[in-house]
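Record 1 of the preview.
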Amino acid sequence: MKLYDFDGMFDEKLKNYIAKNPDKYSESGWENVIPEMYKRFGDTKIKSLDKTPREFYAEMTADELVKCLKAHLKQGVPVSQFLCDAIESADVTEKLLPLLNGTGDEREYAMGLIGADDRALKIYMELLTTCGDDETENRCVELLKEKADKVLPEAVKNYKNGVKRGCMLEIMSRSVVRNDEVFDILLKEFRTEPENLALNAGYLATYGDERALPALLDKIDEEGITYPEYRELKFAVEALGGEYETERDFSSDPYFVLINSHNGAENIFKYLKK
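->
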């Protein structure tokens, strides 16, 4: 299969155009106009092909599109948006699924093109629990959260078996259909894992079950909480329809001091890295 570097062709045309029109746009102006120029390039006929980039890929079958993607990745030829658009427009999800267990680049592109399709959820959960790659795991969590209710039984099972418990909590917190077992798990984690207090409060807020309010209100009233924990707890309380108006003094809390200093964001980052 002959591959074409359409992005390279566009870059060359763009380079020549800018050289001839250096003052036509400001730097930000070029940033705005280049994406539109790229779109128009997709409908521009390439002399050597006698067809546009979009036409070139539109003539391919589903098998050819996937084969073309794999060849681009294997040979290091840039994958153009025109190829990705053609793949997304075709019904090729089943043919992309094997790429999820392929090389890093194949997996990355396959995940981006498949998205949270139901047919890929089982593979995403398997990758999350076995691949050992942080970037892939994070991507799997994001995709699984979009279909949290569909993978809820597996998420609960993995949590109970001690498999990627933090990831499973995050997925469970996104489920929409109310489930007492999930609520009890999220509440238990909130009550028994003080080192993850703010994170687990956030999960309760995301889950959206107002039955968590008493536990949140009890915790936010404790003297030992830090300022960041207080802010996350207050957000969770308000997210569930509650209120907490008690005035608290955090002037001696190092997080509070750093956050409210002149370079708060930078200082808090340095403090947390220690």
